[in-house]
Amino acid sequence: MALLSKDQITAADDRAFEDVDVPEWGGTVRVLGMSGTERNAYQSSLVVIGTNGKPQRVNLTDQLAKLVGKCLVGEDFERLFTDKEVAALGRKNGAVLDRLADVAKRLSGLDEKAVEDAAGNSGAARSGASTTD
Asked: Global pTM?
């Protein structure tokens, strides 16, 4: 198999989505996995940086609503909720948000370790051999 070029990589449509039934809301929603940039922004939004420039704590306020809000999209794949609108989403049924967050995490490659890493609470990453400069 030939190696991919930069153009082939950037042109690849690699973001997964899933339509999820939400009977509590009377229909179906579309959950789109976050891009790497969106995922990093989400993780950063959970970390409170102290005056010394180091992570002080994890801010879990509306964490489910933030995650779900970044991943709920319409048929046009445009976000349904802006970052400023997540508080309204956070007032919805917590069990529903949790279910949708599980889908969003899976599609975005997020897990509990990722949150710990963002907060600087995990051990040092193992380094491996690299063939790049």
From this structure: 0.77
Return d(Cα 71, Cα 78) in angstroms, integer.
Answer: 9
Q: Domains in the chain, ordered, with CATH? A: 16-113 (3.30.2220.20)
How does 51-87 read in b/e, with b if 16+ C-beta sit within 10 Å?
Answer: eeeebeebeeebbbbbbbbbbbbeeeeeeebeeeebe
Question: CA 40 to CA 62: how far, in whole Å?
Answer: 17
* Cα distance between residue 11 and residue 5, in whole Å: 10
Each residue's pLDDT expressed in tens, for the chain with a length of 133 residues: 899 999 999 999 889 999 999 999 999 999 999 999 999 999 998 998 888 888 888 888 889 999 999 999 999 999 999 999 999 999 999 999 999 999 999 999 997 665 555 555 444 333 344 444 4
